[in-house]
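Comment on this:
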Amino acid sequence: MITTGITPGVVYKFRVLAFNVVGSGSLSQSLTVKAAQQPDAPDKPTLLLQTPNSIQLTWIEPDAQYDTISDYRVYWDFGNGGNWFVLLTATTSGQR
């Protein structure tokens, strides 16, 4: 069964009732589910290593309490004041 039209972050409860030719049985126990929603922001990046030609960053991942985080996009600015570009897409920060 797929339920559509749900609202992100809202808590829903589900129960099931079985029927046959005689009638219905008892209701099942309920399942409580909080609908997936956008993740919280990761912590500010931390500098791990800097050389003349490279910079290595990490960050603390937010709690994936609503849904599994699929990836992160790292943005950078060339120092020209607010023109942010995607540097890379990563599946993990390396830190949990």
Notes: The chain has no helices and eight strands. The first strand starts at residue 11 and ends at 14. The beta strands are 11-14, 19-20, 23-24, 31-34, 46-50, 55-58, 72-77, 84-90.
